[in-house]
Amino acid sequence: xxxxxxxxxxxxxxxxxxxxxxxxxxxxxxxxxxxxxxxxxxxxxxxxxxxxxxxxxxxxxxxxxxxxxxxxxxxxxxxxxxxxxxxxxxxxxxxxxxxxxxxxxxxxxxxxxxxxxxxxxxxxxxxxxxxxxx
Length: 134
Prior knowledge:
Elements: E1 4-8, E2 13-16, E3 19-22, E4 28-32, E5 39-41, H1 54-66, H2 72-89, H3 93-107, H4 111-119, H5 122-133
Antiparallel strand pairs: 1-4, 2-3, 2-5
Helix pairs in contact: 1-2, 1-4, 2-3, 3-4
């Protein structure tokens, strides 16, 4: 089986090509077979007022592409610039690997994979900000 597989918890919501879909009472699994479908788990969504750090801003922009609110070709350079700026600050091996993956994914119009890689950087960014306040 190819395509994206979504595992949804009870009553979990997901945005697919602009339509909000809510799961029923039981866990379920959906196989998305349409290539380049715009898919966003609403539990993972970053609200505009939460896009207040460098990683969150790049995640939010990627999310806008996934929700269909931004055109991928119009947003590509802005995303790549944001990822490049992050790579100047997040220089450890693991962060670099996530950023390289995100960059490749953006170039291949695989925005779900790009968001997944970028979201892996959120805990690291949080720790860096916490250490800076201490």
